[in-house]
C-alpha cells in the first residue's frame, strides 16, 4: 500500500512532466512510491486507449470513430445532476456491448451529458478474453466541470484481479485530480526528456501532512494496515529480525536443485548463490561430461550501488581439464548507468563469443542425435569493461581483452545414438571451417582486442528517482555504432579493424499489432592478421528451438538471430548487410478466425536476410503462432541460401508472453 502526491504538467500534443512531492509506503518509510499518474491515461476521446500490462495493441474507445464496428449500445435512462458550478445537467446512461467478445473492447456503462455530449463518467470492464495475464480489469472514471465548457477527470479508479493455482490476487489504484490550472505559461524549455521526477525529500512528510492533504479518507482496514506496518518496520530492520529471516530462508531443500542455492545476510546486505543443477552439468565432444559450478556474491542492494563477484569452476571429465574464471562487477552510479567489469582466468568459450548455442541444447542434440554444433576453444584471458551513459540517450561500452588462445579437439565419441557413417550419424570435428579435420583447428596465438560501442536513443525519455535513472525509451529508432580493433602490440598476433552500424525500432501499429526491424552493415577495414575466431560470426540456429539463449520470460528476443543459418558457414571478413523484420499481430489476425480466437493465440511472422560480398546470400521467411497457453511459440520457417536449396523447419520457443 502506498500513497503519493504529485504535480502533473501537460501541454498539447504530447508534452508531459510529473514531479512527485510526497510519498508514503506502508512499512517502508525510507522508500519511494512507484505511483505515476502521467504514465497511465484513460482518454476515451482518443480512438484507441493503451493500457500498459493488459494488452500490447490497446482497446477501442466506445466513442471511437469506428466504434460501431465493435460495439452495440443500449439506452438505459436519463437523470438530473449538478455540475461543479451548480448548474443542472441531464446525463444519459448508455450500456456498451461488445459485438464480439474477443475483440479489444470494453463492456459496461458510459455516461453522456445531454446537448453538450460530453463524457461525465465511465464504468467499464475488460474480461479475460480481451486481456493478458489478468482475469479482469475494472475502470471507474468521473469527470468534473473545470469551466462552463471544459470537463476533465476528477477521480480515476481501476482494479485488477488474477486467479491462478487456486489463489486470488487483486490490486486497486485510485487517482484524484485537483487544482486544475488551464493554459499556464510554461517557461522556455520547461518540457524536456525528463517525464517524471521524485523529489529526494518526498518521503519525509509526517502524519499531519498526510491528514491535511489526503483527498480520500482511509478505511478502517487501511488505517490498521498502516499502523501495523509502522509498528513492525523498525523491528524488521533490526539485526535479530533479519537474522531470523535468513535462518528460515537459508535452509536447503530439493528446490535448490532447480533454481540454485541462495544464502542471505540481509543485515549486511550480502547475498551468496550458486547456479542451478540443470545449468551445471552438460556434455560436449571436447570436454565430454562437464561440470560448470558458479558461485556468486553480491554486496549491496540489486537496485542500488553494489559489487558482484562471480567465480566459475569448470571441469571436463573426458579431456581432464580444469578451468576457472573470476568476474568482478562494480555498479558505481545508477544515475549515469556507470559500471566496471574485470574478468580473468583460464576458461573455455564458443568460437562465436555471442554463444548462440545454449549448453543444455547442445547436450541434448549431441547425446540424442549425435549432432555437436558447439565449437570451442581454450583461453587464458583478462578483460576490462567500462560502461556509462555519456549524455541522455548516449551509451558507451568499452572493452579491452587479452587472450592466449588454445586450440581444442574432440576427446569423446560418446552418444546415446549409435554411430553410422553411411547415414551421416557421426560427430563433426571441433573445427568450424572443416567438419572432417580432427587435428588442431588453428595454431595457438595471442590476441589483444579493443571493442568500442556507442548506442544512441534520440530524445530518450526517462524517470529520475533519488536512487537512479530509469530509461523509458524513445519514439525514434535506436542507432548502434561498433568498432573493433585487433592490436598488434605486446605480443599480439592479430591486426584488423572492423566497423559496424545498426538501426532498429519497434513500431506500434495500434489495433494492427507491432512491427519490429533491425538492419546493419559491417566491414573489415583492415585484415592484415585475422584469425577465424575474429571473423564476423552471425547468430544462426540449427536446432528446433528459437533463440533459446534468451532469458526465460523475454518473449521478444533481440532481432539479431537467424533460424535456418548454419552457425559458421557464413562467417566472413568481407562486407555484409544483415536485416531482420518481425511482425506480432497481438490478436489482430487470429481474432478474425472463429475457432482460433477462443485460444487467444497470436499470429507472428518475420523475414531475415544476410547479404555478403561475392554474391552470397541467405533469406528466411517465417509464420507462426505465439501466446500458446501463454508460454509457447511455434514458427514454420522456410528459406533460400545461395549455398544450398530451399529448406524448411519447425521452430519452438518457451517464454511467458507479456512478461
Largest beta sheet, briefly? 18 strands, antiparallel
Mean pLDDT: 91
Helix content: under 10%
Secondary structure class reads mainly beta
Tally of helical segments: 5
Q: Cα distance, first to last residue?
A: 23 Å
Mass-distribution shape: globular
Our count of domains comes out at 3
Low-confidence stretches: 548-556
Q: In total, how many beta strands?
A: 32
**Share in β-strands:** over 45%
**Cα-atom radius of gyration:** 29 Å
Account of the 3D structure:
Helices cover 8% and strands 47% of the residues. With 659 residues, it is mostly beta strands. The protein folds into three domains: 2-232, no CATH class; 269-363 and 378-446, no CATH class; 494-659, no CATH class. It has an 18-stranded antiparallel β-sheet that branches. The longest helix has 18 residues, at 220-237. The chain is globular, with a radius of gyration of 29 Å. The relative contact order is 0.08. Mean pLDDT is 91; it is low at 548-556.
